Amino acid sequence: MTGVDEVQVVVAHSERTTLRVGDVFVKVDGDPARLEAEAAAMALAPIPTPRLLWYQPPALALARLPGRALGKLGEPSSASPAAWAAAGAAVRTLHEAPLPPWEAPSRDALAAQLATECDLLVAGGILPADLVERNRRIAERALRPYEPVFVHGDLQLSHVFVDGDTVTGVLDWSEAARGDAMFDLATLTLGHEEHLAAVLAGYGTEVDLDAIRAWWSLRSLCNVRWLAEHGFDPAKPGCEVDVLRARMDD
Predict the structure, then answer these.
(1) What phi-psi label fits residue 98: left (phi over 0), alpha (psi between -120 and 50 degrees) or beta?
(2) Domain, as residue range, for 121
(3) What is the number of domains present in the chain?
(4) Is 17 exposed, middle or buried, given 0-12, 13-18 or 19+ CB atoms closer than 10 A?
(5) Does a structural domain hold residue 131?
(6) What's the pTM value of the predicted model, to 2 decimals?
(7) How large is the greatest C-alpha to C-alpha distance in the chain, in angstroms?
């Protein structure tokens, strides 16, 4: 066939797949509720998001965002400090928006997940027991009372697009909820601690640094096994296992 762009697989695993055809990204998800939440969250978000072209469960199509991702976990970011600060400012705008209707996982649910994952990591010989135990103690600090805000819920730096020093859009809103502001800031800077100061300069208000560090440990502990089982390598330099190792000196 002529006039048809090549289909590129952007990400694929057993839960969802994202395909790119020209300037259109098509997401296919085994859980229609996630796609429904993503479409609704983009409509509510007060910061730039991809343009929704169509939505027909189990798929939705999004227009390409201008610019490029802020960076990628495990790789140095070429984005300027001003771009990181702009990302922080965008996060602050989101956190000040009216609360969405969805609730983030409760502290009890997170504590149970953390305990289960830590036990499995040690029992399966996936990570050393001392590494898991040290990070578990740090991670538990994230399970504190907080004032809920509108969180993105999966604010990986690869989901934030910038053009120069301007944020052009934020991707992947299926985990948006009423949650902990420090979780978004931690997710954005996971594996890129050197950019935390620039992000916080843009965020522009007091934050709980201990909670951010705790979320680095909690997110990494809870993701290592899933990543390994779905074809990703959390032990690559700069990724989740290195994040956990860095906490051993805290």
Answers:
(1) beta
(2) 65-249
(3) 1
(4) middle
(5) yes
(6) 0.94
(7) 58
